[in-house]
Structure formats: C-alpha cells, structure tokens
C-alpha cells in the first residue's frame, strides 16, 4: 500500500530524531503533537472527548491494549485486584464476540490470559444479532463480562448494530469494546457515518491509522473512554523515570520504549483536514462500489456481500475456479486481490484502502479480472 506523502515525510523525521517518546519531560514536543492528534481523532471519529488515545504498533496491539483495561476494570469491580493477584483464583471474565470477529481479537484475548471467547450468532453479513447477544448475556447471568463488537467485517465491510447491542451489553453490566481496524473510519464521513450509529456509546475502541489514513506501518490506535482504567492497566512506575502526576504517553500503550508514532498520524490529519479525510473515505467506498458493479456484469461471477463500505467478496462459480482466478491475478501483477473463505465458499476478496487508487486503476483492475476469468473459461 502506498503511504500518504505527508505521513511518509513525517515518519522519516521520526526515524531521524530517534527519540523515545514515552515521557512528556523527555519529549515534550511529541507529547504535545500526540495530545493534539488524539483530540483530532476523537473529533473525527465521533468518540467521547474525555477518552485516552494510545498509539500502538498496530491494530492487534490496539485490541490488546483496549481489552487490558476492561479485563482489570471488570475484575476490580468484582473485588479482585488482577495487578496484585494475577488471574489465578479470581472470578472468570466472560468475553462475548460475534461469530465473524477478526482473528486478532482472539489473539489479544489469549495474550491477556482470558482464553477463548463465547461466540454468538451473526446475520448473513456478519453482524452480531442483538437477540443472540441478549440471550447469551441473560443465560450467563451476572459476573465480569466484556462484549466485543465489530466495525467493518473483513469480508462484507458491515458493522454491528451498535445502538441495540451496546444498550444490551450495558444493561447486563458488560464493558463494550469495538474492534474497528478499518471500519471505524466510516464515522469520519457524513455519507457513511450512519453505519456507525451508536458506536460512541461503547467503552473502548481500536483502529489502525495504516488502513484508510495510509500512515506507514506501526500505527495502531487504542481509545478508552475511562482514561484512569487504561492507565491502571498499562502504567509503569520507576524511580529513574522523569514523570509528574500528568498521564504519560507510556501509560497508554504496552511499550516503555517507543518511537514517535503520533507524528505521522498528526501530519496526515493536518494535511487532509476534516473534509479531506471524509473525501478519502468516500472515494475508497466509491471505488469498491465500482468494482462490485463491474464484477456483477461478468458471466459466472457472483458478488456475495452487500457492498456498504470498502470490501467486496466475489465467487466465480466454484471454489476451484475462484482459486484459479486469484492465483492468476496475483501472477498477472496488475492488481492486488487475494483469496479467502467466507460462508463456506472460496472468494476473491477485495479491500480498497489505498489513498492513491484512481478511477483508471479501478478500470485496469476490472479488466485484469475480466481477462483472467475469460482465459480460465
């Protein structure tokens, strides 16, 4: 993926400066930039202004960090101090997820010692069914619980119905986390914000600036409404650390030593502005719609998902033929589209996320698919 020029230039500066950006006293300029970038992101994504924003290595660690806060918080509310006693012997934390959550959620839960989650049913586009969530939480009864919802299914692009699911989870006393690696950016666009309706009612969120904003890798974003809960889970104390009472950058991420990740994020948001970010999101979605419309005109091709955001999944009549199309496309080199399995079928999965993609690029990609499919036929 091509990085946005402003983000790339800022990232080069960060590498040249080579500063450990964990403490305000040591790197006050980076801390100020981080505070500003965090405030801009909260505003862009429609998230509570009091939330803490942590800049992590990627979306996996953003989920890990955002889920560490509720792990400790729900146990604390149940009378158990996980920082002192660990997880052994304490109340079990129940984590409820949709059947089509991203695999990084399970990885983060494993890293946190929470084990495999409880899975609830989803609809045909991968959205959590509110009735299934209600039934699961009611059957389990009271106890420490976390519900993980999704903004942007990796195959369909669909987001969970947040208004209903967040209300249900909170009514049962659960912390709500939203995994929104790419889908959370829908909130930055007036045209697509409806997909995220009710997402601001959650307790924590994770996304990736590499996706959509096209910041270089190493740019996950973790947002937690209760800043104290995040600091309690991630904070580090040391006599040699030059810190004061103010929350430090290192209190919001797993790493003590870390590069200045906030600078490239600040740079691209400063460059694009509110309207530019919205236009970027809408352009990516328009390209996805164009690709899907063109695929539907090809004989033997079926687009399986409702194309509501930036994802398109298509099948070419059989698993074998679909895999052959994927293999030939990759060998052709005109476009980068990969294979996956969704709803028991092999699919060509298209994820439109490159800021520099043009209408001409879309046309060339369509022609490459058409050419390969015709050759196979």
Polypeptide structure, described:
This protein has 377 residues and is of the alpha/beta class. It has two domains: 266 residues, Aspartate Aminotransferase, domain 2, CATH 3.40.640.10; 103 residues, Alpha-Beta Complex (Aspartate Aminotransferase, domain 1), CATH 3.90.1150.170. The protein is built from eleven helices and eleven strands. It has a seven-stranded mixed sheet with strand order 1-7-6-5-4-2-3, with helices on both faces. It has a four-stranded antiparallel sheet with strand order 8-9-11-10. A hairpin with a 2-residue loop joins strand 10 and strand 11. Helix 9 crosses helix 11 and helix 10 crosses helix 11. The radius of gyration is 21 Å and the shape is globular.
Element-by-element helix/strand order: HHEHHEHEHEHEEEHHEEHEEH
Side-by-side strand order of the widest sheet: 1-7-6-5-4-2-3
Largest sheet, in brief, is: 7 strands, mixed
Multimeric status of the protein: single chain
Keywords:
11 strands; alpha/beta; four-stranded antiparallel sheet; Aspartate Aminotransferase, domain 1; Aspartate Aminotransferase, domain 2; 377 residues; 14% strand
Give a short synopsis of this structure.
The protein is an alpha/beta fold and 377 residues long. It is 42% helix and 14% strand.
SSE diagram, text form:
Layout lengths: L4 H13 L10 H17 L7 E5 L2 H19 L4 H4 L8 E5 L4 H9 L6 E3 L9 H11 L4 E6 L11 H10 L3 E5 L24 E5 L11 E5 L2 H8 L27 H35 L5 E2 L7 E5 L3 H14 L5 E5 L2 E7 L7 H18 L1
Parallel strand pairs: 2-3, 2-4, 4-5, 5-6
Antiparallel strand pairs: 1-7, 6-7, 8-9, 9-11, 10-11
Helix pairs in contact: 1-9, 2-9, 3-5, 3-8, 6-7, 9-11, 10-11
